[in-house]
Amino acid sequence: MSERQAAGGAADVDAGALAETLERARAEARAIPRLTDGADLDVDTAYRVQRAGIDLRLAGGERLAGVKMGFTSRAKMVQMGVDDVIWGLLTDAMLVESAVDAGRLIHPRIEPEIAYLIGRPVRSAADVDAAVAGVAVGFEVLDSRYRDFSFTLPDVVADNASASGYGVGAWHDPSRVGSTANLGMLMEIDGRAVQTGSSAAILGEPARSLPAAARLAEEAGIVLEPGWVVLAGAATAAVPLPAGAHVRVTASRLGSVEVTT
Question: Locate the Fumarylacetoacetase-like C-terminal domain: which residues (predicted)?
Answer without folding.
Answer: 108-259
